[in-house]
Amino acid sequence: MIVERLSLVDFRNYEHADLEFTRGANLLVGRNGQGKTNLAEAVTYLATLGSHRVSADAPLVRSGADAAFVRARLGHGERHIQLEIQINKQGSNKARVGGAPVRSAELPRYAQVVLFAPEDLQIVRGDPSARRRFADQLLVQLSPRLAGVIADYDRVLKQRTALLKSARARGLRGDALPTLDVWDDKLIALGTEIIEARTRLAADLHPHLVAAYAAIAGADHSPELEWANSIAGFDPEDGDDQRVASGAVTAEAFRAALAAKRTAEFDRGVTLVGPHRDDLMLRIRALPVKGYASHGESWSVALALRLASAQLLRADSLLGDPIVILDDVFAELDADRRMRLASLVADFEQVVVTAAVEADVPEELRGRTVRVEAGRILEVSDDE
C-alpha cells in the first residue's frame, strides 16, 4: 500500500496543501516547526483515527477554522481509493470513502500506517496511558471494528464515572444507586472485549518484537511484553508496579473486581477497574524497561515495538505493506542505530521520512525529496 496524493485544508499550520508521493523512499526536509510532522500526522490519522502528539482532535484544526479536511488517494496494486475525513473542533467527525459517506471508524479498513516518532520514547518511559494508546491504535488497524468498541467503552466509562461522582456528592452508596448495575453490565461487556483483544495482541506481537529488538540493538536481551490487568489486582494508575501473573480474562473476573472495588469507587468517585487502568509491561533481561533500561536500550525497545507492529500488519493484512513513516527519528539515534533502522525498513513498499537535516538520513532513504517551509511545499526533487 502507498499514499499517492495527500491534500489538506485547514490542518494544523496548512491552509491548503497538495503533495504527491512515490513508491519507495520519500523525504520531507525542513527546519523544525515548519510542518513536516503535520504531513506525517495527517496520513497517520486516517489509519489510526488519532494523533501521536495530542489526545484530542481540536488542536489539529488550524487556528480560526472550524474544521480540518484530510484527503488521501491510496494505491494497492491496481486498485486506487480516495479517503477523506472532516475533523471538527466540535461535534462528530465526518468521513468519506470513494466519495460515499461512511462512519469515521471505517477508515482504518482502507489505510494502514506505522509511524516512528521521538514521542515513541514515552511508550516505554512514560505513563501507562502512552502504552495503552500504542496498543489500541495498532488494534484498530488490525481489527477496525474495535474502533467502535473502544469509543463505546470510553463513553460508558465517562457516564459511569459521572454517576459515581454525583453519588459521592450526595452521599449515596450502592444500594441506593441501582442504575449503577446497568452501567456495570455495559462496562464489563465492552471492557472484556478490549482486554482480551489486547492480550491476543501482546502474544502476536512478541515474536516480532524479539526479532526486531535483536536487529536494532545488535543484541539479544530477551524482550518481553505482558498486560497487567486491573481486574487481576494490578493498578498502575495508583503506582502499583508489582508483576501480576497472566491468566484467563473473563467477564466474571471483571464483575468480581468491580464488586471488590465498589466501596473505594464511591469514596473516590472514580471507576477503578477496567482496561483504562491497565498497563503493558515491557521488560528486557527480565527487568522493567521503565526505570532500568539505558537511554539506548529504551530507544531500541521503542523502535522495536514500531517495527514489530509493521511486521505484524504486513503478515496479517490483505492490503500489502503498511505505509512506514519515520518522523524526525534519525536525529535521536546514533550512527549505528540509524543504519540498522534504515536497512530494516528500506524494503517496505513505501517509506516517508521527515528530517530537519538531510545528512541525518541514511542514503538508502533519501528518495524523492520535498522541502517544507512555514506550511508551504517549496521544492520537489526526484532521486532516481
TrEMBL record:
<dbReference type="Pfam" id="PF02463">
    <property type="entry name" value="SMC_N"/>
</dbReference>
<dbReference type="InterPro" id="IPR018078">
    <property type="entry name" value="DNA-binding_RecF_CS"/>
</dbReference>
<dbReference type="InterPro" id="IPR003395">
    <property type="entry name" value="RecF/RecN/SMC_N"/>
</dbReference>
<feature type="binding site">
    <location>
        <begin position="30"/>
        <end position="37"/>
    </location>
    <ligand>
        <name>ATP</name>
    </ligand>
</feature>
<keyword id="KW-0742">SOS response</keyword>
<keyword id="KW-0234">DNA repair</keyword>
<dbReference type="InterPro" id="IPR001238">
    <property type="entry name" value="DNA-binding_RecF"/>
</dbReference>
<comment type="function">
    <text>The RecF protein is involved in DNA metabolism; it is required for DNA replication and normal SOS inducibility. RecF binds preferentially to single-stranded, linear DNA. It also seems to bind ATP.</text>
</comment>
<keyword id="KW-0227">DNA damage</keyword>
<dbReference type="InterPro" id="IPR027417">
    <property type="entry name" value="P-loop_NTPase"/>
</dbReference>
<keyword id="KW-0067">ATP-binding</keyword>
<feature type="domain" description="RecF/RecN/SMC N-terminal">
    <location>
        <begin position="3"/>
        <end position="356"/>
    </location>
</feature>
<keyword id="KW-0238">DNA-binding</keyword>
<keyword id="KW-0547">Nucleotide-binding</keyword>
<comment type="similarity">
    <text>Belongs to the RecF family.</text>
</comment>
<keyword id="KW-0963">Cytoplasm</keyword>
<protein>
    <recommendedName>
        <fullName>DNA replication and repair protein RecF</fullName>
    </recommendedName>
</protein>
<keyword id="KW-0235">DNA replication</keyword>
<dbReference type="InterPro" id="IPR042174">
    <property type="entry name" value="RecF_2"/>
</dbReference>
